[in-house]
Amino acid sequence: MTPSQQIDQLIAGLTDWRGKTLASVRKTILEVDAEIIEEWKWMGSPVWSRDGMIAVGNAHKDKVKLTFSHGASLPDPDKLFNAGFGGKVWRAIDLFEGDELDGRTLKDLVRAAIDYNQAKKKEKALAKAQK
């Protein structure tokens, strides 16, 4: 089974608002860039990547959590991040039943994560070339 099929299966198994929310988040993320890939990690977590990890999606009992692996380094002018402020690297968006997530602002955040990943990739390549 491919990672995308595993994510399909996860969403289908979430028959309440969490499945709809995770499906909407997934659709929005994938609309940003055709080169975003879906992965299945940590025994059941959908992951979206492009030149490095962008975000992880998890359905919890009372929320859907979208964790950006380098969220602390990303601009968040629309204040989407509402969790994970205690850490130095990641930030998260906790979505509860009835919450609305603006697709445009999520897409902006995903683009910023891709830009961050690509800049880090270039830095690593430059450092390696200078050795």
Level-1 CATH class name: Alpha Beta
CATH domain fold name: Aspartate Aminotransferase, domain 1
| Major pleated sheet | 5 strands, antiparallel
CATH architectural grouping = Alpha-Beta Complex
Residue stretches low in confidence (pLDDT < 50, at least 5 long) are none
Along the chain, the helix and strand elements come as HHEEEEEH
**Percent helix:** 40-55%
**Measured distance between first and last alpha carbons:** 41 Å
Task: Please give the radius of gyration in angstroms.
Answer: 15 Å
Structural class: alpha+beta
Shape: globular
What is the strand arrangement across the widest sheet? 1-2-3-4-5
Overall domain count: 1
Instruction: Classify the beta-strand content into a percent band.
Output: 15-25%
Work out the number of β strands: 5
Mean pLDDT: 95
Discrete helix count: 3
Domain YdhG-like: 19-114
Protein name: YdhG-like domain-containing protein
InterPro entries: YdhG-like (IPR014922)
Concise structural overview:
With 131 residues, this protein is of the alpha+beta class.
Q: What does this protein look like?
A:
There is one protein chain. By secondary structure, the protein is α+β, with helices and mostly antiparallel strands. It has a single domain (3-129), classed as Aspartate Aminotransferase, domain 1 (Alpha-Beta Complex), CATH 3.90.1150.200. It has helices at 3-13, 17-32, 103-129; strands at 37-41, 45-49, 53-59, 64-68, 91-95. Strands 1-2-3-4-5 form a five-stranded antiparallel β-sheet. Helix 1 (3-13) runs antiparallel to helix 2 and helix 2 (17-32) packs across helix 3. The radius of gyration is 15 Å and the shape is globular. The mean pLDDT is 95.
